[in-house]
Amino acid sequence: MEEHPSDRVTAAVPELRVIDDELWSQGNARQMEMRRVKSSGDLTISRQKIEERILRKVREKLMRRDLSEEFCDFQQAQSCVHRRRRWSTTRLFMPGSVSIGAVPPP
Fold this sequence. Notes:
By secondary structure, this protein is mainly alpha-helical. It contains three helices and no strands. The protein folds into two domains: 17-62, no CATH class; 64-93. The protein has helices at 21-40, 47-62, 65-92. The longest helix has 28 residues, at 65-92. The N and C termini lie far apart (97 Å).
């Protein structure tokens, strides 16, 4: 026996949504635009439009001040770690230096 659509009970449960309304609307608008483009037969896009879209997303997603500050902090911390390692390695192999477990020169 097949269920008739009018027999179904539906209810909105916003707390179970994975995508918020704004993003959902943007996605639907994009789908409609793509359908319009396909139906008109014009599937080409100019290089300039592609570059504009890419640069806009780079600015929005990658060039945020908080992300660049976090990256700089990380890079600075890494630089300190590498500097310490380089210094300790250099000291181990310097003539006349003594390291733990090494026999001092006569």
